[in-house]
Amino acid sequence: MKLLNLDNSVLMDVASLRRQGDDLVIKGQILGSMPITAKLTPEQARAAFKMLDFKTMLFIASMLLRKSPGKK
User: Fold this and answer.
1) How far does the chain reach from its first CA to its final CA, in angstroms?
2) Low-confidence ranges of the chain (pLDDT < 50)
């Protein structure tokens, strides 16, 4: 999975998402060269969900069914 900048350049290439106890551990590379391991705690996940309104949650769910622009 790749996270992109607004200019469509790769910001982060995510190699894996794994559970470690109660946390989500994210491994990948930032800007194509710097390896990173980050964790998302349950408290931080709840904080992220609090930032979303209902319309944004529906949009995120609908993204799973959408094609990327320019892809066939």
Assistant:
1) 19
2) none
